[in-house]
Design goal:
Layout lengths: L11 E5 L4 H17 L5 E5 L3 H10 L6 E4 L6 H5 L7 H6 L8 H7 E2 L2 E2 L2 E2 L3 E2 L2 E5 H7 L9 H14 L3 E4 L5 H16 L1 H8 L7 H16 L10 H9 L3 E6 L4 H5 L10 E5 L9 E2 L2 E4 L6 H11 L2 H11 L15 H12 L15 H17 L2 H13 L3
Parallel strand pairs: 1-2, 1-3, 9-10
Antiparallel strand pairs: 3-13, 4-5, 6-13, 7-12, 8-10, 8-11
Helix pairs in contact: 1-14, 7-10, 8-9, 8-10, 8-16, 10-17, 16-17
Length: about 400
């Protein structure tokens, strides 16, 4: 824990879990930039691995942190229902911030008509990474695969006709399976149906949910025998080592690729939007929110405005391996991969909010969805899994 106080004034308390690695480096870059621009505003940061639990406990004790880093979207619904997060609408509308965000990030920042968060970064989840040499060897053109079902056919062909693994599919943690499911649902059914299902009308789209689960089942059938015990980190390393033609994951996976000598972008690995999701930028993101009441409202507002600034987001995202939610940030010093991600974001027709990462569903629903997919990969019972998914998405908070 580090706390800094100057001039006898109370610190702004920032609670987060960005410790070490790219997250810690990104936060340090953000805070350094803020201190340079606002040396008179005291800021202390407190790290906590059990962030959500700690924030909730502090709220119950009527001692919330001034600001904390949290998923936006429906993840914030319990906080807004309790009236404990601040109204940040003035920060959005007073300057040029609102006009420099696309609709998806703005939707994530709003609960109802009120802005409650300042998005800090974006990770795209609907990436399909490609081992270039293996794709040539098995005779597949990823850009020509136009749907999740067509992708299943291609994986089945690779399994039947070659000695290669089509796609590594880690299932040790349920969120990786849920992420595949939601990406398949988006790619096969489109954003309108995806949004209707996540917004509480799942039972009206049972057939589409069943179809998505059947496709996920087909992916699992041609995955490696150890899929149930395979973690994301291990799968990513094995993809780098050339074990599979494809790997589906958020763009955070590419951090390991760029750090691997001899595994060069474009010549050794590349990426396309997951089949059927071209034009969609499915988002996971972090944001900063504030308590409804703080002892230092002016200082908190100054910090939140910096979080939403082009300078703050350039500093943070360059180190984090993500892209800025603002569309006017100079990404000239970002990696070529991230520059392409930023361009795809700016050109996207829609920016769906991820179910798996808490933006598109409430926290209680996310827990039930993870339970549903855990049972699914144990039994591969599509009908039972569809029932569980619908129950999770239509339950009341």
């Amino acid at each position: 824990m580090s706390r800094v106080s100057t001039g006898g004034h109370a610190d702004i308390e920032l609670l987060h879990r960005l410790v070490g690695g790219d997250g810690g480096a990104a936060l340090d870059a953000l805070l350094d930039g803020f201190t340079q621009q606002h040396p008179d505003v005291p800021l202390g940061d407190v790290t906590n691995e059990n962030l959500s639990l700690t924030v909730k406990s502090r709220i119950l004790k009527e001692d919330p942190p001034d600001v904390w880093i949290e998923w936006p979207g429906k993840n914030l619904k319990p906080y807004t229902d309790a009236g404990v997060v601040g109204d940040l609408s003035a920060i959005w509308t007073d300057g040029n911030m609102e006009q420099n965000y696309l609709d998806g990030p703005k939707d994530a920042a709003r609960i109802g008509d009120t802005y409650r968060a300042v998005p800090l970064n974006i990770h795209r989840i609907n990436n399909l990474f490609i081992n270039a040499s293996l794709a040539d060897e098995v005779g597949v053109d990823p850009a020509r695969i136009d749907s999740p079902s067509a992708f299943a056919e291609e994986l089945e062909r690779i399994d039947a006709e070659t000695d290669h693994v089509g796609m590594l599919f880690p299932m040790k943690n349920p969120w990786t399976v849920l992420q595949v499911f939601e990406t398949v649902l988006l790619g096969e059914q489109g954003h309108d149906t995806y949004r209707a299902i996540s917004d509480g009308r799942a039972s009206q789209h049972r057939r589409e949910i069943v179809q998505a689960l059947e496709i996920v089942q087909r992916y699992g059938a041609v995955a490696t025998d150890d899929r149930a015990y395979l973690s994301l980190t291990d799968a990513n390393e094995r993809f780098i080592e050339g074990e599979s033609v494809f790997f589906h994951q958020g763009d955070w996976a590419a951090g390991a690729y760029t750090e691997t000598d001899g595994f060069d972008y474009r010549s050794e690995w590349s990426h396309v939007p997951f089949p059927g999701t071209d034009g969609y930028y499915a988002m996971n993101m972090d944001s900063v929110v504030s308590a409804a009441d703080t002892d230092t409202p002016d200082a908190v507002e100054t910090f939140l405005r910096y979080v939403g600034s082009a300078d703050g987001q350039r500093r943070f995202n360059r180190k984090k391996g993500s892209i800025p939610p603002r569309t006017d940030v100079d990404t000239g010093q970002f990696t070529p991969f991230l520059q392409e991600q930023q361009l795809a974001f700016q050109q996207s027709r829609s920016q769906p909010l991820s179910i798996t990462h808490g933006l598109g569903v409430r926290p209680d629903q996310l827990i039930e969805l993870k339970t549903a997919v855990s049972a699914f990969v144990s039994s591969w019972d599509v009908e039972s899994a569809a029932d569980a998914v619908i129950t999770a998405l239509e339950q009341s908070s």
